[in-house]
Structure formats: structure tokens, C-alpha cells
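[stage:ingest] chain + small molecule ((3R)-3-hydroxy-L-norvaline)
[stage:ingest] validated
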Amino acid sequence: RVLVTGSLGQLGSGLVKELRSMYGNENVVASDIRKAPEEFMASGPFVYADVMNYGMLERIVVDWRIDWVVHYSALLSAVAEKNMALALSVNIAGFQNMLELAKVHRLRIYSPSTIGAFGPSTPKDNTPDLTIMRPNTIYGITKLHNELMGEYYREKFGVDFRSARYPGILSADTPPGGGTTDYAVDIFHHAVRHGHYDCFLSKDTRLPMMYLSDCIRGTVEHLTYPTPLPQCVYNLAAVSFTPAELAKEIQKHLPHFTISYPDPAHPDFRQAIADSWPASLDDSMARRDFGWKEEYGLEKMVKLMLDKIQAQVEAEKKNIG
Ligand code: VAH
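[stage:predict] done
[stage:export] C-alpha cells:
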């Protein structure tokens, strides 16, 4: 069986659905620390899992006969910067608990890293898997720590640890979880519902991004790869764009959409986080080792996001009507 922690976050529910379609509902145990919506509960096992409670996690691993773990529980960049103590507990101690359980119970463990694991001294363009990594955000520091601990456990204890550095993820059906790339999701809801978006990043902030279904497919391809891979951690990329480029693409569909940017003299706190991250990634190793290839470029992603959110708005109107 597979255990997914952080199942109710931006990425977890989509991953649980995909794994359940592959292995059957009963073989994918979803978990989080808050109540799941009814349809989620009806689709398969869901348990409360506080990743800071080793005994509770071990109980789940034993009772449910878990073989693989996808560990998604984490505080993302913006939230972590504002809640350092909780971020260190969840992101480091929580991950360490799961990594130790993977060693004790011989579990395969997949836990994503992030472009946030790079820092301001990392080469910004076409950033390779192996390079300078001096992140200066709590989120990036915790994720780099986890990368190194996962590699150590594979080297020293033979734990099958797998990880990929996710870019910003665009999703229409699940809200983002308090990150710096969230603007790329919020913009669509504002464009469809209000025709305007006050962007919290400057217009030329170029960041690596990916559509949700590409992320889930890339994760599953990596998680299920049948033989040990040369690396534990891989960059995973699809497309890089700036808020201005994204707005221009949206305006092809919504010509009256307008956007504003912060006063450069008073930047949003997330600007410094975004400025410390790469503008684009080299993910050639993932393409070489497990055949990674994105399916969604900017045009396709924008059309799909707008179509999905416009359908949501129509459905909401019907429910109200
Ligand atoms: C964040 N969406 O902004 C997350 C992600 C690469 C960014 O880790 O923190």
C-alpha cells in the first residue's frame, strides 16, 4: 500500500486520485491533519497523521501494511518564512520521522524538494541538478536539508529515497498552499471573476512553472520507476514565465483583463524569495534517467486553467441560482 501525507494540500488530492486509479482505492491511504471533504472520504482510506508524531506514523505504517510513502506534508515558502518554528518542526522533524520509518520498515519514500532549495548564489538560468545551493529561506533550507538526509539514508542504509525539485505548480481545482508562486494560480481566479489582478511579484520575475497534471505524472513516473536510479534528487521542469508573459497570454482569451504590480520601492516580502530562486531549470537528467517530458506549455496551460475556472464560476452561479 501507499501512504500519502499532506493529502489535502494543492498536490496531494490529485496524486491520491492518480495512484488510486492505478492501484485501487483501498491500496492508497490518504492522510492529513484536517478533516477531508465527504467525496474524498468516500473514495478510499483516509487517516489522521501528525507527521511530528513518530509513534502515530509507525502505527499507520504497520496497521495499513504500507510499502511506499509519498511525503507531501510541509509548510511552503511564504508560510514557512512567517512560521519558522512550525516550519522547522514539520519540514525537518516531520520528514526525519518518515525517513527513519522508511529505514526501519524498508519503505520506498518519495518526498519532493523545490526550486526553493537553490539560492541567490546559484546560477539562475538553466540551473543544473548539481550546483551551488545556499538557500536563504526557511523553506529552501529545510528542503535542502531533507535532500541531503535522504541521500545519506540511501547511501548508508539502502533506503530507496526519491525526490524531485518541483517548480511552481498551477492547479485549477485545488488552492495553492501559501507559496511564492501562488500568484500564477490566483491570477486566473481574479481574471475570470474580476477582470483584474494585483500581482504581488514584479512583472519581470521569471520562475519555473508546471501544470498540476504534469507534476503528478512526473511524480508517479519517478515513484514507480522499477529499478534504482543514478540520482536520488532530480530537477523537474516544464516552462518558465514572468507575470507579464502570463498576463499577456491570458489577455489572448480575456482581452479586457488588466494587471497591476507592486511599487518597486515597496516590494512584497515574497519578491525577495522569488529573486533568490532560478529563472529556469535544466532537467535533462530526469529526461535521461526516467523519461520525463512535460505535456503542458504556457499556451495550453492558460487555456486549460481558464476553461476550468470559467466552468467553476458557471457551476457556482447555477448553485446560487
Ligand atoms: C512555493 N509553490 O511557492 C511552492 C513551491 C517552487 C515553489 O515550492 O513555495
